[in-house]
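Model it.
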Amino acid sequence: MDEVSLAKMRAQLAKALRPRRYVHSVGVEQEARRLASRFGADAELCATAGLLHDCARDIPGHQLVEIVSQHDEGCVSDTLLRNPVLLHGLVGAILAKEKYGIDDERVLRAIRLHTMGAPDMTPEDKVVCLADYTEPGRDFPGVEGIRACAERSLDLALLAAFDSTIKHLIDSGYEIEAATVAARNGILRGLENSTGVGDRSALQQ
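Modeled.
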């Protein structure tokens, strides 16, 4: 995606989102580009997905459910029906294709997965998901630790991000979507395979 096309999408997005959400989206675009360059992912792909990742975030939950139903996106779990805001990644991929003209399935997939992840995430999927946690405007307990981790390992940082989310959901008494647990387990298995099965000490370094 060239800079002219990105500029047009920013202008379109600025009209569609609340100002704070738009600022966050541009922050994720920039952070995704930086992380992609650091970890060998496709920087243009990640920047595009980062910019558009929340294009459906301001849509009310009941409309997110309706859009998913209209597009025959498969079975939606009871957990998602009770927490429809989590569908904004899935709907975001639909809008990115229909409203913003994105036809690169790798971009659409990264947008689709940024909310809950998946067990088989590509480097681009991981970069966009992590950039959503670490863009400079983010300010939540533990974010500095995740940012520090992101300076040395994409997988370790995303594992820390998923752990933070899951712990927050448990502490708050909320349900956990199965896809998020599967994504966290997938990253953990990948780390174990790369450092030696059972050698968890390497994960703590």
